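Before going further, learn to read the protein records used in this course. Taken together, the tokens spell out the fold as the letters spell out the chain. A record is reproduced here so that you can trace the correspondence yourselves:

***
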Amino acid sequence: MRPSAHYKRSEILESTIKEKFLDELRRRADSMRCGNPMDMDTDISAITTSAQRVKIRDMVDDAVSKGAHAYFRKQIDGSVPPQGLFYPPAILTGVTEEMRIARHETFGSVLACMDFEDEEEAIAMANDSDYGLAGGVWTGDEKKAMCVATRIRSGTVWINVCRMLSADAPRGGFKESGIGRELGIEGLREFTQTRHLFIGDSSGSLDDIACGLVLPDR
């Protein structure tokens, strides 16, 4: 399988594998269980607020009105609590960079798919964002995966795995995705403040001082 970069809640697929990948993705999405968040067998739970569900719906409607295609929408009627704030899992194809759903996190069960022709285009698409919290590369070519991953401007880049975290590994975003780091040594350093003291031996003259503060003797 060739590279696909997961970023901005978008799946950026190499065009040569697009149809095969989407067919498998649809099959897996359809098998996911939507239901009560208190049920440990639930795969996809409710949306946090009514306003958030409206936001997800509006982003999907905006994309479709601009030419995106609803490749898959899961039927959830009768399988979820009637009073719950659920949004049916969906896969959109034909998504372009100017659509809101390609540039902002939906925080919902919607995957926006775009395709690319070559590696350079994929990296450019992944980096064309104001955010950079996490992304991922999926491919059977380990050398290519490392090359692409090092060029994605994101605080975390997973390779052939997703959402793995370690207390030893710092995490945090690039650009507008947060400030600083947590976890790891870098996370501890966020609670410290670096300073230094210079100590002279009084053997030099003022001519040796490039810049600084000179205090008179008292």
